Amino acid sequence: MSLRDQAAEVLLGNWRGHNTIPAPGLYPHQWSWDSAFIAVGLRHLSSLRAQQELESLFGAQWADGRVPHIVFDPEAPRQGYFPGPEFWRSEEVNGPQHPDTSGIVQPPVHALAAWEVHASDPETSRRRSFLERLYPKLVAWHDYLRGRRDLGGRGLVSIVHPWESGMDNSPSWDAPLQRVEPVPPTEFQRRDLDHADASERPTDADYGRYVRLAATYRDHGYADGLQVHEFAVEDPVTNSLLAASEAALVRIAQELGEPAHPHEAEVARIRDALPLLLEDGLFHSYDVHGGDLVRGGSVAGLVPLVVPGLPQAQDLIATATGPRFRAEELGVVPSWDLTDPLFDPSRYWRGPAWFNITWLLQRGLDDHGAPELAQVLRTGMLTAANRSGFREYIDPRTCEGKGAHHFSWTAAVVLDLLATS
After folding, report:
1. 100-149 pLDDT, tens digit each
2. Label partner for 189 (CA 20 to 30 A): which of 78, 256, 339, 353?
3. Which family does it belong to (predicted)?
4. What CATH number is given to the structural domain containing 349?
């Protein structure tokens, strides 16, 4: 079976009628930024399903504009995932007729995905009024982030939980999490360890901190403010993808005959604010409570390459190809600095390479005048997927597969690379 056919088999097997789960077992519901990457790949199999993927997610958008990081499948076992709908209690905010969701968010890559889905089949998109219906929802989503989440007052979005970064267990969160008292492991039951090796997952102490932060947010009615959030961090991935998605909204607005200049201005505003996070050739997170950069070696610091016209792009390319990430040599990009003692090739976001991040970086490299390196990453991702069998993430040095099997965004990235390379 060809690599394309294998990737298609993964996505079609994980389809649940109106959306795609990230993977069987460990991830039985719909995840926000997963669905965006999945839609990008799914468009090469069915533009209709790709549109439905995003429509399904935005069907669970909250009245305040936030797009929740999980939309729970009512057909999935209620106890199959923790924290589930009984923990989040979203119905207390949204009412009983609204889909059950979590109360936190994930990085805003959705407008970028929506434009790619439209561009793959404009006729079907226009016939279904796909962009007309989604555009105001995307605008409301971005308005929520820049309005409710500028907790530092510096023009940058803050995440209020490590899960909101998408890079759940990154060492970047270790220091800001130290002020959070973990919930004892006796007071909750993890479900992730039913499906994955403990050596590849967050520790019980870290998980207890995640539970504490989420419960506090819930108990404050999901209100945003520094008095609520012990963890408030300006994250380069969230802000960079907001800029990239605003650039996509420029194209969407032009397609719809709407004013594009507000989105153009927003791209420029974020691009001008991002250097607040820059130091020594890498963007870092900023701890709003601590008032300082969280210095480290996260691949998040390279993701600003997706921002159009980024002045610091050449510095990031030098960092990506240097000893810290060795992108040209490896063909994939590790999630943490290879030279740092904290690098762990197996544990969640503390070293393994992820296909969605490397996919974003190859797009950014193409946009910033490094097509040869972008091609190296495209070839590297296809080789790694073929070796590892569509795993959730891989050891960047050996391509050994880690985490969940039959992972949807890995398959989606492969389909997109095969179709567009």
Report:
1. 999 999 999 999 999 999 999 999 999 999 999 999 999 999 999 999 99
2. 353
3. Belongs to the glycosyl hydrolase 63 family.
4. 1.50.10.10
Q: Which two tokens stand for residue 23?
A: 């993977």
Q: What is the pLDDT of residues 324-383, one digit of tens each?
A: 999 999 999 999 999 999 999 998 899 999 999 999 999 999 999 999 999 999 999 999
Whole-number Å distance between alpha carbons of 204 and 256: 49
Q: Give the whole-angstrom CA distance, residue 297 versus residue 170.
A: 10
The burial class, CB within 10 Å (0-12 / 13-18 / 19+), for 93 is middle
Place of tokens 């492991």: 185
Please tell me whether residue 60 adopts helix, strand or coil conformation.
coil
Residues of the domain holding 387: 3-420
Please provide the distance, in angstroms rounded to a whole number, between the alpha carbons at the two ends of the chain.
20
Both tokens assigned to 80: 């199959």
Structure tokens at 197: 């090796």
pTM for the full predicted model? 0.96
Helix residue ranges, H only, 287-404: 313-321, 327-330, 355-367, 371-388
* Contact in structure between 156 and 272 (CB atoms under 8 Å): no
Structure token digits, residue 330:
């490896």
Vertex 191: Cα angle to 193 and 348 (nearest 5): 50
Burial class of residue 88 in the structure, from the number of CB atoms within 10 Å of its CB (0-12 exposed, 13-18 middle, 19+ buried)? buried
Q: d(Cα 201, Cα 376) in Å, to the nearest integer? A: 29
If residue 250 lies in a helix (H) or strand (E), which one and from where to where? helix 236-256
DSSP 127: H
| Residue 163 three-state SS | helix
| 83 contact partners, CB below 8 Å, separation of at least 6 | 102, 188, 211, 214
Tell me the one-letter amino acid at 71.
V
Give the count of beta carbons closer than 10 Å to the beta carbon of residue 21: 23
Residue 37 near residue 113 (C-beta atoms within 8 A): yes
DSSP 350: S
- Positions annotated as catalytic residues are 168, 392
Characterize the bridge pairing of strands 285-287 and 282-283. Answer: unpaired
Q: How would you classify the pairing of strands 401-402 and 393-394?
A: antiparallel
Distance CA 325, CA 354 (A): 13
Cα atoms in the Cβ-side hemisphere of radius 13 Å centred on 127: 6
CA-to-CA dists, residue 34 to 41, 57, 68, 71, 377, angstroms: 11, 10, 12, 12, 20
- Domain count across the chain: 1
